[in-house]
Amino acid sequence: MDTKTRGYETVQVHRFHQDSSENEMDYIVQEYPVALIYNGISHAVMMATPSDLEVFAKGFSLSEGILHNLSELYSLEIRHNALGVEVDMTISSRAFMALKKHRRMMVGRTGCGLCGIESLKQLYSELPLVSSKVPSLWLNQIPRAIAQLKARQKISELTGGAHAAAWVVKGQIVALFEDVGRHNALDKLLGHLAEQKLNVAEGFVVMTSRASYELIRKCAQYNIGLLATISAPTSMAIEMAKQLNLTLASFCRGDSFVLYTQ
């Protein structure tokens, strides 16, 4: 595996314990700047783990509403250089015009996550209501899925520094992606679902992070009916989940969880 894309690297460290220390190799999660370029124009630079970048770019494009579907993506090329990674995509004229309109409204992209939104009303009105139904049986499957996470998190097992997003069908994890950023991990998963043409009505998403509003927004954009997270939700995440008809379960640990919206 290419060391630039495996998701982790090794460094020499000095490990201290009480009055003793020793030199050893340690595993560190990779974090690189990844530029997402559409039709020759750089739209965003994300700090991400440089593994599974093709599905990451596809998932980002879909969850941000740039693409309606993957048929609007004509080509995708990944280039590594000394500064980071460039993902160069060619998209349809419709998608590119919509992207340029969005860019004209943006005053910056410095982590605010709401750039391009001109009013609070627009925050909700531009997202579709989730139409996927959530069978009550799925809630019973959450602890079963959570129990499978640790064995599937290869990068996190080595480094302790990666989030994971998993797709669960009938209580089984069928796909899992990791990244230093929780929203990046989700984009990788969504890109995989789109690439494999998996039916989102047949499963739900489990994540190792807190539930923040951007995860709710991305799931709603892709019509995911249920999001389950290990850590706490934010107030904005709960409110957005209610408004968008998305079921949110958090503090999913062991056999218990807290259901915030249904």
Please indicate the count of domains.
2
| CATH topology value of the largest domain | Cytidine Deaminase, domain 2
Largest sheet: 6 strands, mixed
Shape: globular
Low-confidence stretches: 105-112
How much is the average pLDDT? 90
The CATH class label of the largest domain is: Alpha Beta
N-to-C SSE string, H for helix and E for strand: EEEEHEEHHHHEEHEHEHEE
Structural class by helix and strand composition: alpha/beta
Give the total of beta strands.
Answer: 12
Question: Alpha-carbon distance between the termini?
Answer: 42 Å
Structure, described:
There is one protein chain. With about 260 residues, the protein is of the alpha/beta class. The protein has two domains: about 30-120, Ubiquitin-like (UB roll), CATH 3.10.20; about 135-260, Cytidine Deaminase, domain 2 (3-Layer(aba) Sandwich), CATH 3.40.140.10. The chain contains eight helices and twelve strands. It has helices at about 55-65, 95-105, 120-125, 135-150, 155-160, 180-195, 215-220, 235-245, and strands spanning about 10-15, 20-30, 30-40, 40-50, 75-80, 85-90, 165-170, 170-180, 205, 225-230, 245-255, 255-260. The protein has a six-stranded mixed sheet. A four-stranded mixed sheet has the order 4-3-6-5. A two-stranded antiparallel ribbon has the order 1-2. Strand 3 and strand 4 (about 40-50) form a beta hairpin. The longest helix is centred in the middle third of the chain and has 17 residues, at about 135-150. It is globular. Mean pLDDT is about 90; it is low at about 105-110.
